[in-house]
Design goal:
CATH architecture of the largest domain: 3-Layer(aba) Sandwich
Shape: globular
Catalytic activity: dTDP-alpha-D-glucose = dTDP-4-dehydro-6-deoxy-alpha-D-glucose + H2O
Pfam family, one: GDP_Man_Dehyd
Number of strands: 13
Keywords: Lyase, NAD
EC number: 4.2.1.46
Order of helices and strands: EHEEHEHHEHEEHEEEHEEHEHHH
Protein name: dTDP-glucose 4,6-dehydratase
Oligomer: single chain
Bound molecules: nicotinamide-adenine-dinucleotide, 2'deoxy-thymidine-5'-diphospho-alpha-D-glucose
Length: about 325
Protein backbone atom coordinates (compact mmCIF):
# COMPACT_ATOMS: atom_id res chain seq x y z
CA UNK A 1 0.00 0.00 0.00
CA UNK A 2 1.36 3.44 -0.99
CA UNK A 3 -1.38 5.83 0.12
CA UNK A 4 -4.24 5.23 2.51
CA UNK A 5 -7.28 7.37 3.16
CA UNK A 6 -8.28 6.71 6.78
CA UNK A 7 -11.74 7.98 7.69
CA UNK A 8 -12.27 8.70 11.39
CA UNK A 9 -8.51 8.77 11.90
CA UNK A 10 -8.70 11.39 14.67
CA UNK A 11 -10.87 9.18 16.89
CA UNK A 12 -9.86 6.39 19.26
CA UNK A 13 -9.24 3.35 17.05
CA UNK A 14 -8.56 5.30 13.85
CA UNK A 15 -5.77 7.37 15.41
CA UNK A 16 -4.17 4.27 16.90
CA UNK A 17 -4.28 2.75 13.40
CA UNK A 18 -2.59 5.83 11.91
CA UNK A 19 0.21 5.55 14.50
CA UNK A 20 0.50 1.84 13.68
CA UNK A 21 0.80 2.52 9.93
CA UNK A 22 3.46 5.18 10.47
CA UNK A 23 5.45 2.90 12.80
CA UNK A 24 5.25 -0.30 10.75
CA UNK A 25 4.94 0.70 7.07
CA UNK A 26 6.07 3.31 4.53
CA UNK A 27 2.54 4.28 3.49
CA UNK A 28 1.32 7.87 3.34
CA UNK A 29 -1.90 8.52 5.29
CA UNK A 30 -4.61 11.07 4.63
CA UNK A 31 -7.05 11.28 7.53
CA UNK A 32 -10.59 12.42 6.72
CA UNK A 33 -12.36 13.32 9.97
CA UNK A 34 -15.23 15.63 10.86
CA UNK A 35 -13.67 16.26 14.29
CA UNK A 36 -16.84 15.52 16.26
CA UNK A 37 -16.82 15.56 20.06
CA UNK A 38 -15.11 12.11 19.91
CA UNK A 39 -12.06 13.31 17.97
CA UNK A 40 -8.97 15.25 18.95
CA UNK A 41 -6.14 16.69 16.90
CA UNK A 42 -3.81 15.77 19.79
CA UNK A 43 -4.23 12.08 18.94
CA UNK A 44 -2.31 12.77 15.71
CA UNK A 45 0.17 15.30 17.11
CA UNK A 46 3.85 14.58 16.56
CA UNK A 47 3.36 12.37 13.51
CA UNK A 48 5.63 13.30 10.58
CA UNK A 49 3.98 15.90 8.35
CA UNK A 50 5.32 14.27 5.19
CA UNK A 51 3.56 11.00 6.16
CA UNK A 52 0.23 12.14 7.65
CA UNK A 53 -2.22 14.78 6.47
CA UNK A 54 -5.48 15.71 8.23
CA UNK A 55 -8.47 16.84 6.16
CA UNK A 56 -11.42 18.05 8.22
CA UNK A 57 -14.69 17.07 6.57
CA UNK A 58 -17.78 14.87 6.56
CA UNK A 59 -17.79 11.38 5.01
CA UNK A 60 -21.42 11.93 4.02
CA UNK A 61 -20.44 14.90 1.83
CA UNK A 62 -19.53 13.70 -1.68
CA UNK A 63 -17.92 17.05 -2.50
CA UNK A 64 -15.36 16.33 0.23
CA UNK A 65 -15.00 12.58 -0.31
CA UNK A 66 -14.74 12.45 -4.11
CA UNK A 67 -11.60 14.57 -4.63
CA UNK A 68 -9.80 12.65 -1.85
CA UNK A 69 -10.66 9.26 -3.33
CA UNK A 70 -9.80 10.52 -6.84
CA UNK A 71 -6.23 11.17 -5.62
CA UNK A 72 -5.79 7.45 -4.85
CA UNK A 73 -4.29 4.97 -7.32
CA UNK A 74 -6.49 1.85 -7.52
CA UNK A 75 -3.39 -0.26 -8.18
CA UNK A 76 -1.59 0.62 -4.94
CA UNK A 77 -3.84 2.61 -2.58
CA UNK A 78 -6.83 2.02 -0.31
CA UNK A 79 -9.59 3.54 1.80
CA UNK A 80 -9.80 2.28 5.40
CA UNK A 81 -13.14 3.33 6.85
CA UNK A 82 -13.31 3.86 10.62
CA UNK A 83 -15.46 7.02 10.83
CA UNK A 84 -18.68 6.46 12.75
CA UNK A 85 -20.84 7.58 15.58
CA UNK A 86 -19.72 4.87 17.97
CA UNK A 87 -21.40 5.09 21.39
CA UNK A 88 -24.47 2.97 22.13
CA UNK A 89 -25.73 5.22 24.94
CA UNK A 90 -25.69 8.25 22.61
CA UNK A 91 -27.59 6.31 19.96
CA UNK A 92 -30.39 5.73 22.48
CA UNK A 93 -30.64 9.47 23.22
CA UNK A 94 -30.42 10.61 19.57
CA UNK A 95 -30.19 8.05 16.75
CA UNK A 96 -30.19 10.59 13.89
CA UNK A 97 -26.40 11.15 13.54
CA UNK A 98 -25.88 7.39 13.65
CA UNK A 99 -28.07 6.86 10.60
CA UNK A 100 -26.53 9.85 8.81
CA UNK A 101 -22.85 9.07 9.40
CA UNK A 102 -22.85 5.29 9.66
CA UNK A 103 -25.23 4.58 6.79
CA UNK A 104 -25.26 7.64 4.51
CA UNK A 105 -21.53 8.23 5.15
CA UNK A 106 -20.64 4.64 4.24
CA UNK A 107 -22.86 4.87 1.13
CA UNK A 108 -21.02 8.05 0.04
CA UNK A 109 -17.63 6.35 0.40
CA UNK A 110 -18.80 3.21 -1.38
CA UNK A 111 -20.02 5.26 -4.33
CA UNK A 112 -16.57 6.83 -4.60
CA UNK A 113 -14.95 3.37 -4.42
CA UNK A 114 -17.35 2.10 -7.09
CA UNK A 115 -16.54 5.00 -9.43
CA UNK A 116 -12.75 4.73 -9.01
CA UNK A 117 -12.23 1.00 -8.37
CA UNK A 118 -10.12 1.72 -5.29
CA UNK A 119 -9.69 -0.98 -2.59
CA UNK A 120 -11.98 -0.43 0.41
CA UNK A 121 -11.80 -1.83 3.93
CA UNK A 122 -14.84 -1.37 6.17
CA UNK A 123 -14.28 -1.44 9.94
CA UNK A 124 -17.27 -2.79 11.81
CA UNK A 125 -18.32 -4.29 15.11
CA UNK A 126 -19.33 -7.63 16.63
CA UNK A 127 -22.50 -5.91 17.86
CA UNK A 128 -24.12 -6.49 14.47
CA UNK A 129 -24.68 -10.09 15.62
CA UNK A 130 -26.74 -9.11 18.69
CA UNK A 131 -25.84 -10.89 21.90
CA UNK A 132 -25.25 -14.33 23.42
CA UNK A 133 -26.49 -15.83 26.69
CA UNK A 134 -23.91 -15.96 29.47
CA UNK A 135 -23.90 -19.77 29.46
CA UNK A 136 -24.04 -20.21 25.66
CA UNK A 137 -20.98 -22.25 24.58
CA UNK A 138 -21.12 -20.58 21.14
CA UNK A 139 -19.16 -17.53 20.02
CA UNK A 140 -19.82 -15.25 17.02
CA UNK A 141 -18.39 -16.43 13.69
CA UNK A 142 -18.51 -14.98 10.17
CA UNK A 143 -21.65 -17.11 9.63
CA UNK A 144 -23.63 -15.81 12.61
CA UNK A 145 -26.91 -14.17 11.56
CA UNK A 146 -27.21 -10.39 11.91
CA UNK A 147 -29.44 -9.40 14.86
CA UNK A 148 -28.52 -5.88 16.07
CA UNK A 149 -30.08 -4.47 19.26
CA UNK A 150 -29.36 -0.73 19.43
CA UNK A 151 -29.65 2.14 16.94
CA UNK A 152 -25.82 2.15 16.86
CA UNK A 153 -25.47 -1.54 16.07
CA UNK A 154 -28.38 -1.42 13.60
CA UNK A 155 -26.68 1.44 11.75
CA UNK A 156 -23.41 -0.51 11.64
CA UNK A 157 -25.29 -3.60 10.42
CA UNK A 158 -26.86 -1.42 7.70
CA UNK A 159 -23.42 -0.20 6.66
CA UNK A 160 -22.10 -3.79 6.50
CA UNK A 161 -25.01 -4.76 4.26
CA UNK A 162 -24.28 -1.84 1.94
CA UNK A 163 -20.66 -2.97 1.62
CA UNK A 164 -21.71 -6.56 0.86
CA UNK A 165 -24.20 -5.36 -1.77
CA UNK A 166 -21.64 -3.03 -3.42
CA UNK A 167 -19.21 -5.98 -3.65
CA UNK A 168 -21.76 -8.30 -5.17
CA UNK A 169 -23.67 -5.92 -7.42
CA UNK A 170 -20.91 -3.53 -8.49
CA UNK A 171 -17.71 -5.50 -7.95
CA UNK A 172 -16.31 -3.05 -5.40
CA UNK A 173 -13.06 -4.50 -4.04
CA UNK A 174 -13.98 -4.47 -0.35
CA UNK A 175 -13.34 -6.43 2.82
CA UNK A 176 -15.13 -6.12 6.18
CA UNK A 177 -13.87 -6.72 9.70
CA UNK A 178 -16.07 -7.05 12.78
CA UNK A 179 -14.10 -6.52 15.97
CA UNK A 180 -14.92 -6.86 19.66
CA UNK A 181 -14.52 -4.20 22.39
CA UNK A 182 -11.28 -2.22 22.14
CA UNK A 183 -9.32 -0.65 24.98
CA UNK A 184 -6.15 1.43 24.98
CA UNK A 185 -4.98 5.05 24.67
CA UNK A 186 -7.07 7.89 23.22
CA UNK A 187 -10.47 6.30 24.00
CA UNK A 188 -13.12 8.89 24.88
CA UNK A 189 -13.99 8.92 28.60
CA UNK A 190 -17.67 8.29 27.82
CA UNK A 191 -16.68 4.64 27.19
CA UNK A 192 -16.64 2.02 29.97
CA UNK A 193 -12.94 1.48 30.76
CA UNK A 194 -11.74 5.10 30.52
CA UNK A 195 -14.84 6.30 32.36
CA UNK A 196 -14.11 4.01 35.29
CA UNK A 197 -10.35 4.75 35.31
CA UNK A 198 -10.99 8.51 35.40
CA UNK A 199 -13.73 8.13 38.03
CA UNK A 200 -11.30 6.29 40.30
CA UNK A 201 -8.58 8.90 39.62
CA UNK A 202 -11.14 11.50 40.75
CA UNK A 203 -11.78 9.55 43.95
CA UNK A 204 -15.29 8.54 42.90
CA UNK A 205 -16.88 5.09 42.59
CA UNK A 206 -17.08 3.25 39.24
CA UNK A 207 -20.61 3.08 37.78
CA UNK A 208 -21.79 -0.36 36.74
CA UNK A 209 -24.95 -0.78 34.65
CA UNK A 210 -27.55 -3.31 35.82
CA UNK A 211 -26.09 -6.36 37.59
CA UNK A 212 -22.62 -5.95 36.02
CA UNK A 213 -22.61 -9.51 34.71
CA UNK A 214 -22.66 -8.43 31.03
CA UNK A 215 -19.62 -9.81 29.23
CA UNK A 216 -17.45 -8.01 26.67
CA UNK A 217 -14.58 -9.59 24.71
CA UNK A 218 -11.71 -7.11 25.19
CA UNK A 219 -8.93 -6.57 22.66
CA UNK A 220 -6.12 -4.02 22.79
CA UNK A 221 -6.54 -1.46 20.03
CA UNK A 222 -2.97 -2.13 18.81
CA UNK A 223 -4.02 -5.72 18.03
CA UNK A 224 -7.07 -4.37 16.17
CA UNK A 225 -4.72 -2.22 14.07
CA UNK A 226 -2.40 -5.10 13.18
CA UNK A 227 -5.43 -7.21 12.22
CA UNK A 228 -6.83 -4.51 9.91
CA UNK A 229 -3.43 -4.09 8.26
CA UNK A 230 -3.19 -7.86 7.79
CA UNK A 231 -6.63 -7.93 6.12
CA UNK A 232 -5.71 -4.98 3.92
CA UNK A 233 -2.61 -6.77 2.69
CA UNK A 234 -3.75 -10.39 2.57
CA UNK A 235 -7.55 -10.50 2.91
CA UNK A 236 -9.67 -11.96 0.15
CA UNK A 237 -11.96 -9.46 -1.60
CA UNK A 238 -15.60 -9.82 -0.56
CA UNK A 239 -14.72 -11.60 2.68
CA UNK A 240 -15.61 -10.76 6.27
CA UNK A 241 -13.07 -11.41 9.05
CA UNK A 242 -13.91 -11.39 12.76
CA UNK A 243 -11.24 -9.83 14.99
CA UNK A 244 -10.94 -10.89 18.64
CA UNK A 245 -8.31 -11.84 21.20
CA UNK A 246 -10.15 -14.27 23.55
CA UNK A 247 -10.64 -11.51 26.12
CA UNK A 248 -14.07 -12.29 27.59
CA UNK A 249 -14.66 -10.62 30.96
CA UNK A 250 -17.70 -9.44 32.89
CA UNK A 251 -18.02 -5.71 33.50
CA UNK A 252 -17.74 -6.39 37.24
CA UNK A 253 -14.44 -8.22 36.72
CA UNK A 254 -13.04 -5.28 34.73
CA UNK A 255 -14.13 -2.71 37.32
CA UNK A 256 -12.69 -4.83 40.14
CA UNK A 257 -9.35 -5.10 38.28
CA UNK A 258 -9.26 -1.29 37.99
CA UNK A 259 -10.08 -0.85 41.69
CA UNK A 260 -7.40 -3.41 42.66
CA UNK A 261 -4.84 -1.57 40.55
CA UNK A 262 -5.50 1.62 42.54
CA UNK A 263 -5.44 -0.23 45.89
CA UNK A 264 -9.15 0.40 46.45
CA UNK A 265 -11.65 -2.13 47.80
CA UNK A 266 -13.11 -4.32 45.03
CA UNK A 267 -16.60 -3.52 46.36
CA UNK A 268 -16.14 0.24 46.16
CA UNK A 269 -18.48 0.56 43.17
CA UNK A 270 -22.01 1.70 42.41
CA UNK A 271 -24.73 -0.14 40.47
CA UNK A 272 -26.69 2.33 38.33
CA UNK A 273 -29.63 2.33 35.91
CA UNK A 274 -29.16 -0.29 33.19
CA UNK A 275 -28.81 0.59 29.48
CA UNK A 276 -32.06 0.02 27.51
CA UNK A 277 -31.77 -3.14 25.40
CA UNK A 278 -28.37 -3.87 26.99
CA UNK A 279 -26.62 -6.73 25.14
CA UNK A 280 -25.69 -9.52 27.55
CA UNK A 281 -22.56 -11.03 26.07
CA UNK A 282 -20.27 -10.68 23.06
CA UNK A 283 -17.68 -13.33 22.18
CA UNK A 284 -15.59 -13.64 19.02
CA UNK A 285 -14.27 -16.77 17.31
CA UNK A 286 -11.38 -15.35 15.25
CA UNK A 287 -10.11 -18.62 13.80
CA UNK A 288 -10.62 -17.57 10.17
CA UNK A 289 -8.36 -14.52 10.54
CA UNK A 290 -5.71 -16.52 12.40
CA UNK A 291 -5.71 -19.60 10.17
CA UNK A 292 -6.23 -17.99 6.77
CA UNK A 293 -4.16 -14.82 7.22
CA UNK A 294 -1.76 -15.85 10.01
CA UNK A 295 -2.69 -13.00 12.40
CA UNK A 296 -2.12 -13.33 16.17
CA UNK A 297 -2.74 -10.76 18.93
CA UNK A 298 0.28 -9.55 20.89
CA UNK A 299 -1.59 -8.37 24.02
CA UNK A 300 -2.46 -11.76 25.52
CA UNK A 301 -2.47 -10.52 29.14
CA UNK A 302 -5.51 -8.29 29.77
CA UNK A 303 -4.38 -7.10 33.22
CA UNK A 304 -1.02 -5.97 31.78
CA UNK A 305 -2.75 -4.14 28.90
CA UNK A 306 -5.15 -2.56 31.40
CA UNK A 307 -2.23 -1.43 33.58
CA UNK A 308 -0.61 0.24 30.52
CA UNK A 309 -3.94 1.93 29.74
CA UNK A 310 -4.38 3.17 33.32
CA UNK A 311 -0.83 4.58 33.23
CA UNK A 312 -1.65 6.34 29.94
CA UNK A 313 -4.75 8.03 31.42
CA UNK A 314 -2.77 9.04 34.50
CA UNK A 315 -0.15 10.64 32.23
CA UNK A 316 -2.66 12.34 29.89
CA UNK A 317 -5.02 14.08 32.28
CA UNK A 318 -4.61 17.30 30.29
CA UNK A 319 -6.18 15.45 27.34
CA UNK A 320 -9.28 13.97 29.03
CA UNK A 321 -9.94 16.48 31.82
CA UNK A 322 -11.73 19.10 29.64
CA UNK A 323 -14.44 16.55 28.67
CA UNK A 324 -14.91 14.99 32.11
CA UNK A 325 -17.47 17.27 33.83
CA UNK A 326 -19.84 17.43 30.84
CA UNK A 327 -19.58 13.66 30.24
CA UNK A 328 -20.48 12.90 33.87
CA UNK A 329 -23.28 15.49 33.91
CA UNK A 330 -24.88 13.78 30.89
CA UNK A 331 -24.66 10.39 32.61
CA UNK A 332 -26.00 11.78 35.91
CA UNK A 333 -29.05 13.17 34.08
CA UNK A 334 -29.89 9.57 33.05
CA UNK A 335 -29.26 8.09 36.51
CA UNK A 336 -26.03 6.51 35.28
P1 LIG B 1 -14.71 7.15 18.00
O1 LIG B 1 -16.08 7.66 18.31
O2 LIG B 1 -13.64 7.26 19.03
O3 LIG B 1 -14.15 7.86 16.68
C1 LIG B 1 -14.95 8.06 15.56
C2 LIG B 1 -14.26 9.07 14.66
O4 LIG B 1 -15.08 9.27 13.50
C3 LIG B 1 -14.07 10.44 15.31
O5 LIG B 1 -12.78 10.92 15.04
C4 LIG B 1 -15.12 11.31 14.63
O6 LIG B 1 -14.78 12.70 14.55
C5 LIG B 1 -15.19 10.67 13.26
N1 LIG B 1 -16.46 10.95 12.59
C6 LIG B 1 -17.71 10.80 13.10
N2 LIG B 1 -18.63 11.18 12.18
C7 LIG B 1 -17.94 11.55 11.07
C8 LIG B 1 -18.32 12.01 9.79
N3 LIG B 1 -19.61 12.17 9.46
N4 LIG B 1 -17.35 12.30 8.88
C9 LIG B 1 -16.03 12.14 9.21
N5 LIG B 1 -15.62 11.72 10.42
C10 LIG B 1 -16.56 11.41 11.32
O7 LIG B 1 -14.93 5.65 17.54
P2 LIG B 1 -13.98 4.37 17.71
O8 LIG B 1 -14.32 3.70 18.98
O9 LIG B 1 -12.61 4.78 17.41
O10 LIG B 1 -14.55 3.46 16.53
C11 LIG B 1 -13.99 3.55 15.21
C12 LIG B 1 -14.66 2.52 14.33
O11 LIG B 1 -14.42 1.22 14.86
C13 LIG B 1 -16.18 2.66 14.23
O12 LIG B 1 -16.55 2.37 12.90
C14 LIG B 1 -16.71 1.61 15.18
O13 LIG B 1 -17.98 1.16 14.80
C15 LIG B 1 -15.67 0.53 15.03
N6 LIG B 1 -15.49 -0.36 16.19
C16 LIG B 1 -15.29 0.16 17.43
C17 LIG B 1 -15.05 -0.72 18.49
C18 LIG B 1 -14.78 -0.21 19.88
O14 LIG B 1 -14.62 -1.00 20.80
N7 LIG B 1 -14.70 1.10 20.11
C19 LIG B 1 -15.05 -2.11 18.27
C20 LIG B 1 -15.29 -2.59 16.97
C21 LIG B 1 -15.49 -1.70 15.93
O1 LIG C 1 -18.32 -4.65 20.78
C1 LIG C 1 -17.80 -3.59 20.06
C2 LIG C 1 -18.41 -2.29 20.54
O2 LIG C 1 -17.83 -2.00 21.81
C3 LIG C 1 -18.18 -1.13 19.58
O3 LIG C 1 -18.84 -1.39 18.38
C4 LIG C 1 -18.68 0.20 20.16
O4 LIG C 1 -18.34 1.28 19.30
C5 LIG C 1 -18.00 0.40 21.51
O5 LIG C 1 -18.50 1.58 22.12
C6 LIG C 1 -18.27 -0.80 22.41
O6 LIG C 1 -19.67 -0.89 22.74
P1 LIG C 1 -20.16 -1.25 24.22
O7 LIG C 1 -21.53 -0.73 24.36
O8 LIG C 1 -19.90 -2.66 24.56
O9 LIG C 1 -19.09 -0.34 25.05
P2 LIG C 1 -19.23 0.63 26.30
O10 LIG C 1 -17.85 1.09 26.62
O11 LIG C 1 -20.26 1.67 26.12
O12 LIG C 1 -19.74 -0.35 27.45
C7 LIG C 1 -19.07 -1.57 27.75
C8 LIG C 1 -19.90 -2.31 28.78
O13 LIG C 1 -19.88 -1.59 30.02
C9 LIG C 1 -21.36 -2.44 28.40
O14 LIG C 1 -21.85 -3.69 28.89
C10 LIG C 1 -22.04 -1.28 29.16
C11 LIG C 1 -21.21 -1.21 30.41
N1 LIG C 1 -21.08 0.11 31.06
C12 LIG C 1 -20.72 1.18 30.28
C13 LIG C 1 -20.52 2.41 30.86
C14 LIG C 1 -20.15 3.61 30.01
C15 LIG C 1 -21.20 0.22 32.44
O15 LIG C 1 -21.50 -0.76 33.16
N2 LIG C 1 -20.99 1.45 33.03
C16 LIG C 1 -20.66 2.54 32.28
O16 LIG C 1 -20.46 3.63 32.88
Amino acid sequence: MNRILVTGGAGFIGSNFVHHVVRHTDAHVTVLDKLTYAATRESLAGLPEDRVELVVGDIADASVVDPLVDRLDPATDAVVHYAAESHNDNSLSDPAPFVQTNIVGTFTLLEAARRTGVRFHHVSTDEVYGDLDLDDPKRFTEDTAYNPSSPYSASKAGSDHLVRAWVRSFGVRATISNCSNNYGPWQHIEKFIPRQITEVIDGRRPRVYGDGLNVRDWIHTEDHSSAVWTILEKGRIGQTYLIGADGERSNLDVVRAILRHFGRSEDDLEFVTDRAGHDRRYAIESGKLRTELGWEPTYQDFEAGLADTIAWYQAHEDWWRPAKAATEAAYAAKGQ
